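Researcher: Let's try something more involved. This one mixes different molecule types, so please make sure each is placed in the same coordinate frame as the others.
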Amino acid sequence: MQLFKDQILKVSNSLTGEKEVFKTVKEGYVGMYVCGPTVYSNVHLGNCRTFMSFDMIFRYLKHLGYKVRYVRNITDAGHLENDADEGEDKIAKKAKLEQLEPMEVVQRYTVDFHETLKAFNLQPPSIEPTATGHIIEQIEIIKEILAKGFAYEVNGSVYFDIIKFSESNTYGKLSGRKLEDMIANTRDLAAQDEKRNPQDFALWKKAEPQHIMRWPSPWGDGFPGWHLECTAMSTKYLGETFDIHGGGMDLKFPHHECEIAQAEASSGHSPVNYWLHANMLTLNGKKMSKSTDNNIYPDEIFSGDNRILSKPFAPSVVRFFMMQAHYTSILDLGNDALLASEKGYYRLMDALKTLEKIEPSESSSFDVANWQKACYDAMNDDFNTPVLIAHLFDAVKRINLIKEGQETISKADKKVLQDSVNTFVFDILGLVDQDNNDNNATTINGVINLLIDLRNNARANKDFATSDKIRDELLTLGVQLKDGKEGTTFSLN
RNA sequence: GACAAGGUGGCUGAAUGGUUAAGGCAAUGGUCUGCAAAACUAUUUUUUAUGAGUUCGAAUCUCAUCCUUGUCUCCA
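Model: All components are placed in one shared frame. Result:
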C-alpha cells in the first residue's frame, strides 16, 4: 500500500521556519538522519523524548508506505571536553575517571541506551553507525574541504574557515544568526588559540601523547571533530542530499549549522531538505539538571525510586504522556501530568478491549470513514499526535456508547475502526498494552475471573460483605472490577 | 547582551484571522448500581502573560513590556 500518494504530509522545516509539503528526493523513499547520543553517561530523559518523537515519525512514514532508511549514530569519540586547550574528549575523560578502557565506557552506555529505548518501545533505526567506525570517511571529507580551500591546518589540527566559507555561502541560516553578530558577541579570550577566528571549528584535533583515543591521519595522530561524524555518516548512507535531518533544538547551533557548512564546503550543495527539531522536556517547569537535583532517569520513573513522583509509571504511560504534546512544543513533566496521562492511557486501552467484544449491527450510527480521515489529517499536519489522540478519545467514547447500546456499528465499519485504532495506537504512536505484556497474563486473568464468579454468586445471595471484600481487596492489589450491563469486567492498573 | 522557541482554564495541552478556544485529568450534579467504581450525561475557563495597534473580525498579525526554556562553551 502506498498511502503517501493520497496523503499530503506537511512538516515544519526549521530551515525555512515554515510548514511545507513533504516531497522526497526519490519517490517512495525517505532518507532520515537523527543525531544520536554521546555514550559517556546514562541516557537522559530529554534525549528519550527526542528519539521517541523521531521514532513516531519513522513509524508514520513507514505506515504511509515509504521505504525509509533511518540512520541514527552513536557518538563514541570526538566530543571535545574543552575546545580551547588540551582537547581531551568526553569519552576519554570518563575512561580515566573510572579506570576503564574508553571502549568499555562506550559499551556500557550503549547497552544502557538500547535497553532504555527498548523499554519505551522504540524501533531500532535501519543503520546505527559509530563515529569510530568511520574515521576514514571523516578524513576523506577533511581532505576534500582542505582541497576546496575552506579549511586550514595548524600544528597537526585542521580547522574549518568560517570567514572563507562566508564569502561564497551563508553560515548561520539554520539558526538565524548573522556572522557579524557572532563575531561582535565573541569576547576574544583565547589569545593562545590556534584558530584564525573564534567561530572556526575543529575538523581534526591533534592528539597529545597521553591521549588514549587516537588515529593516524595525513596531519599526524589525532581524532575527528564532533560535527564531522554526522556529515560523514549521513553522506555515506543517505547521499549528498537527503530528506530529513532531525535532532533536539539544542543541536541547531552550532552542531547542525556546522554540518550544513561542512557538507556545502565538501559537496557543494545543501545536504538536507527538511530540518526537523524536537523541543525540550522540562521537569516541574524547570530545566533538568543534575546539579540542582531537578533530574530523573527513565529507570527511576519505571521503578518509582525517585523523589519527584508519587508512584512508578509504566514506560507506555510515559510514552503516551509525551505523545499528548506536539514534538515542537516544550513539554513539562510532573507528577500530576503523569497521573492524568496514566488514567487516560488505561481508558484508551480498556476501550480497545471493549471494541474486540462488541457485537456489530446492521448499520453504523456514525461515520467511521470520516473519523479515520480526521486521524490521518492530524498526522499529516506535521505529525500532530495530540490531535490524533483527541480523535482516538472520540473513538473511545463511541465504543463505550456502542457497548451501552446507544450507538451502533456495522460489521464492515467495526473492522475499519478496529484496524485503524490498532494501527494508530500500537504501530504509529508505538504504545504497548502493558497488561497483555505480562507472561502470566493468562493465569492472572483466569484467577480474577474466578473471583468475579464468586463475587457475583455472593451478590446474588445478597452477601454484600463477601462481594465487597473481594472487590475492595482486588482493588488494593491494583485490579479494578467494573460492573456493566453485560457482566463484570476488570482492568489492571 | 545576541539569536531561537514559547507564555492558553484547577493541572496538562491542541487550535496560528472567521459562528459555542479540541482532547486528557480534576471537580460538581444526573443516569446506571445493593452500594461504589467504571461507563454515559450535563455543568465548570465570559477568555488566550500585560499594555497598545492593524482588521468587519485576533489566542492567531504588528509594536512595547514582563516572564520561561534553549543556544552562543559539550549537551536531544
